[in-house]
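Page 37, continued from 36.
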């Protein structure tokens, strides 16, 4: 390729990396804070979830000549943010490790991948929608509680969502930084960790947290991100991505990153489309360059983890959750649409959604396990109950 031919995929990859970082870092930091992480620990989590998937993206895109984009799990972070089992960061680390181990096993044993991807769509999507709903409600709450701060953010998001959708969430993040700086008379960066910081934590052993948090993170990461990411690649003509290698590598990377705050790694969806689509390059065989560029951009952005955490810590919590909610509107819409798509299973989807959403809203958990897990269990039981009952009857007088 001539240097001139590289400009388009390189730029597309940079945009994909920037968009992925700006759209998700607020949610990720808020999620880590929700389970008891300090500012340094949250910054550490953001750092490893930029560097590890960034490096893996560069490697896979280069090796297979496919724009394979890997990022942290946005649905997984949403599960962590909605967790109602109590703040126990050390046990949350164990949950992240469990998620990584399960993803590795999924890559090694295809039957598990088939089992996970065959979780009925109404149940998986309704559970995800229930997790996302309270977060997506935050912009409305912020408009009521802090209207002068929230209004500029929401207005900028609305304008960009109409004129330049890719930049809507990054634009809202920029306005949030400005609003926080003005409302707090400037963010004091002199006391923050401006350089990248790693804060390893020994795993805890609260099994209710480990399994109650780790299994839902794994399920939503597989069903909500990896399956979608593979579909995006195949949509743009990349029919045979190295699925097994991707799962094993992201799971192992998850295990390595977990003690530093790494929630979960997975295939990208929206940003994957930016690197794999024709906007990256008309020639499909040259789009892998966009994957390399996206990975490099994400890894470099990890340097900003300390600054990003400081800004989030200086902001009113409802304002930060509101920005995360704006970023998740699209995911919530897709989840609720998929949940209600099949008329025969709408009752199941509604019940699953209500169980999932009731935990964050009402603040309940059972045996220390949050509502996401119980929503899957209840949804499965209700779906089995509504399956048609088939009775085998023999005609009167028939011979056996």
């Amino acid at each position: 390729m001539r240097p001139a031919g590289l400009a388009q995929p390189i730029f597309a990859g940079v945009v994909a990396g920037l968009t992925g970082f700006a759209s998700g870092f607020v949610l990720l930091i808020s999620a880590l804070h929700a389970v008891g992480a300090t500012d340094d620990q949250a910054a550490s989590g953001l750092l490893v979830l930029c560097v590890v998937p960034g490096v893996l993206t560069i490697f896979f895109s280069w090796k297979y000549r496919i724009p394979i984009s890997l990022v942290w799990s946005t649905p997984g972070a949403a599960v962590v943010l909605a967790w109602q089992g109590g703040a126990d960061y050390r046990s949350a680390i164990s949950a992240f490790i469990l998620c990584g181990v399960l993803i590795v096993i999924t890559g090694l044993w295809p039957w598990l991948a088939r089992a996970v991807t065959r979780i009925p769509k109404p149940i998986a999507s309704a559970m995800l929608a229930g997790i996302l709903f309270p977060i997506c409600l935050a912009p409305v709450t912020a408009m009521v509680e802090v209207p002068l701060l929230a209004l500029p953010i929401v207005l900028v998001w609305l304008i960009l969502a109409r004129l330049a959708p890719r930049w809507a969430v990054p634009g809202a993040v920029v306005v949030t930084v400005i609003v926080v700086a003005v409302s707090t008379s400037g963010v004091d960066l002199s006391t923050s960790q401006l350089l990248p910081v790693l804060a390893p934590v020994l795993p805890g052993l609260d099994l209710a947290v480990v399994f109650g948090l780790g299994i839902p993170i794994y399920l939503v990461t597989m069903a909500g991100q990896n399956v979608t990411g593979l579909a995006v690649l195949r949509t743009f003509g990349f029919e045979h991505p190295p699925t097994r290698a991707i799962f094993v590598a992201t799971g192992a990377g998850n295990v390595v990153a977990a003690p530093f705050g790494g929630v979960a790694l997975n295939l990208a969806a929206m940003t994957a489309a930016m690197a794999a689509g024709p906007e990256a390059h008309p020639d499909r065989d040259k789009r892998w360059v966009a994957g390399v560029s996206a990975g490099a951009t994400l890894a470099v952005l990890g340097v900003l983890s300390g600054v990003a955490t400081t800004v989030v810590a200086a902001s009113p919590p409802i304002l930060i959750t509101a920005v995360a909610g704006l970023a998740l509107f699209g995911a919530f819409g897709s989840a609720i649409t998929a949940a209600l798509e099949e008329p025969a299973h709408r009752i199941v989807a509604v019940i699953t959604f209500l169980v999932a959403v009731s935990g964050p809203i009402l603040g309940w958990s059972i045996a220390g396990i949050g509502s996401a897990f119980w929503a899957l269990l209840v949804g499965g039981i209700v779906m089995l109950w509504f399956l048609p009952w088939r009775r085998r009857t023999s005609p009167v007088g028939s011979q056996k």
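Strands lie at 70-72, 265-267. Flag for discussion at group meeting. Residues 391-400 have pLDDT under 50 and may be disordered.
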